[in-house]
Amino acid sequence: MWVLNSFAPAAGATTGSTTVTVTGSGLYAVGYCRFGTAGVTVATATTSTIATCVSPAAAAARAVYMEWSNNNVDFTTARLPFVYFGALFVVSSTLLF
């Protein structure tokens, strides 16, 4: 059985495309990362303990659970939080000499 221990970063933009490094055990060469209701993406493991996946876009800024699966059916129950954040804007700036 596969186990999800941790992943980083634990946050990304609602636009998606954040590369997430997953650590665990028993990871297959091709696996799946589920980001709550935002969706599932295909992951690639470099070893049986390290993999990467890319976060999908989310409809709104919110926290979801990130889970791992080797078969896209049975997902881990670790339920580690991943936080989607909205667009960041610069409100003001000061030029210093």
Structure in words:
- It is a single chain.
- By secondary structure, the chain is mainly β.
- The chain has strands at 3-8, 11-13, 19-25, 30-35, 40-45, 50-54, 62-69, 80-85.
- It has an 8-stranded mixed β-sheet with strand order 1-3-6-5-4-7-8-2, with no helix packed on it.
- It is elongated, with a radius of gyration of 15 Å.
- The termini are far apart.
Outline:
This protein is mostly beta strands and 97 residues long. Helices cover 0% and strands 48% of the residues.
Distance between the termini: 60 Å
Helix and strand string, N-terminal first? Answer: EEEEEEEE
Percent of residues in beta strands?
over 45%
Largest beta-sheet details: 8 strands, mixed
**Topology, number of strands:** 8
Rounded average pLDDT: 92
Shape: elongated
Radius of gyration, CA atoms, in whole angstroms: 15 Å
Spatial strand sequence of the major β-sheet: 1-3-6-5-4-7-8-2
List the helices and strands and how they pair.
Layout: E1 3-8, E2 11-13, E3 19-25, E4 30-35, E5 40-45, E6 50-54, E7 62-69, E8 80-85
Parallel strand pairs: 2-8
Antiparallel strand pairs: 1-3, 3-6, 4-5, 4-7, 5-6, 7-8
Descriptive key words:
single chain; 97 residues; mainly beta; eight-stranded mixed sheet; 48% strand; elongated
